[in-house]
């Protein structure tokens, strides 16, 4: 694990379901930490649905080799965020990755051992939804380095129930849980400032209380954020300047 020797903290971002904003929040947390002066890397282990290259507008980037291994891609707007994703290794960005478990495990091992991360305060690991080969590989390969996991949910019961499974997974794998974030938690009306709870309310917070783990905060629904991610325009600006920014910084403070 020489390539990880200089990485101080590894934070794994998990969710029970897809579409709850795990990748978006991984990027926002990475940028939030960077804004606080930390050196940060972002590892996307969602092998079948890598979205980090698109979110960061790095879809055309490829990985280069050096004597020590793979050189991560650096985010175009700010050279200090190093990023690794299978998306950078595909011939065509829309190529599907149809792999069985052992191949996925080998790929993740390579991400951990062969990428020259250098000196980092934080390595944020964005995972696919659920608890599958990718998650087991991350735990197996990074066990000693993992600082903890952040669990992302939306507020409604059906998503929260899945987070409980992630929590059990962490406990069984002896991964410390840093806390739960409730994303898409209410929409603040631009006209009357009333908070509309589109997807129910408070499920993540309740679960945190019930399970005696920290609640890291709520992040509101922001149509501008969704729209910019959708259009592939000014994504970074949207991630950094959207209404969700303060909420994400609050999450980071609570870590
Ligand atoms: P996951 O990684 O959990 O599958 P994504 O990060 O890809 O989820 O987010 C799914 C969709 O939800 C994306 O279109 C993203 O722009 C949008 N999204 C995520 N968080 C928010 C938010 N707080 N407000 C509005 N849209 C959001």
TrEMBL record:
Pfam families with a match to the protein in the record: ParA
Gene3D superfamilies cross-referenced by the UniProt entry: P-loop containing nucleotide triphosphate hydrolases (3.40.50.300)
Note on cofactor: Binds 4 [4Fe-4S] clusters per heterotetramer. Contains two stable clusters in the N-termini of NUBP1 and two labile, bridging clusters between subunits of the NUBP1-NUBP2 heterotetramer.
Cellular localisation: Cytoplasm
InterPro entries for this protein: Mrp-like_CS (IPR000808), Mrp/NBP35_ATP-bd (IPR019591), NUBP2/Cfd1_eukaryotes (IPR028600), P-loop_NTPase (IPR027417), YlxH/NBP35 (IPR033756)
Keyword Zinc annotated: no
This protein's UniProt keywords: 4Fe-4S, ATP-binding, Cytoplasm, Iron, Iron-sulfur, Metal-binding, Nucleotide-binding
Binding site for ATP: 16-23
Binding site for [4Fe-4S] cluster: 189, 192
Cofactors required: [4Fe-4S] cluster
Family: Belongs to the Mrp/NBP35 ATP-binding proteins family. NUBP2/CFD1 subfamily.
PANTHER family registered for this protein in UniProt: CYTOSOLIC FE-S CLUSTER ASSEMBLY FACTOR NUBP2 (PTHR23264:SF19), NUCLEOTIDE-BINDING PROTEIN NBP35 YEAST -RELATED (PTHR23264)
Quaternary data: Heterotetramer of 2 NUBP1 and 2 NUBP2 chains.
Physiological role: Component of the cytosolic iron-sulfur (Fe/S) protein assembly (CIA) machinery. Required for maturation of extramitochondrial Fe-S proteins. The NUBP1-NUBP2 heterotetramer forms a Fe-S scaffold complex, mediating the de novo assembly of an Fe-S cluster and its transfer to target apoproteins.
Descriptive protein name: Cytosolic Fe-S cluster assembly factor NUBP2 homolog
Protein's organism: Clavelina lepadiformis (Light-bulb sea squirt)
């Amino acid at each position: 694990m020489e390539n990880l020797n200089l990485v101080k903290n590894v934070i794994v971002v998990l969710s029970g379901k897809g579409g709850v904003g795990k990748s978006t929040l991984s990027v926002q947390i990475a940028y939030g930490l960077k804004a606080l002066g930390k050196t940060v890397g972002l590892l996307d282990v969602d092998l079948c649905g890598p979205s980090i290259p698109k979110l960061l507008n790095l879809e055309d980037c490829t990985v280069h080799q050096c004597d020590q291994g793979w050189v991560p891609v650096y985010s175009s707007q700010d050279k200090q965020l190093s990023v690794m994703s299978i998306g950078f290794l595909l011939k065509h960005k829309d190529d599907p990755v149809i792999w069985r478990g052992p191949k996925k495990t080998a790929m993740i091992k390579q991400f951990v051992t062969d990428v020259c991360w250098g000196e980092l305060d934080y390595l944020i690991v964005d995972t696919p939804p659920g608890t599958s080969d990718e998650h087991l590989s991350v735990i197996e390969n990074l066990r000693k380095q993992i600082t903890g996991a952040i669990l992302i949910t939306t507020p409604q019961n059906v998503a929260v129930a899945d987070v409980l499974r992630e929590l059990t997974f962490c406990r069984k794998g002896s991964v410390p849980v840093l806390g739960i974030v409730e994303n898409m938690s209410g929409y603040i009306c631009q006209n009357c400032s009333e908070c509309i709870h589109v997807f129910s309310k408070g499920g993540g917070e309740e679960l945190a209380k019930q399970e005696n783990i920290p609640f890291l905060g709520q992040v509101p629904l922001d149509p501008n954020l969704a729209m910019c991610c959708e259009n592939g325009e000014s994504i970074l600006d949207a991630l950094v300047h959207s209404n969700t920014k303060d909420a994400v910084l609050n999450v980071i403070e609570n870590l």
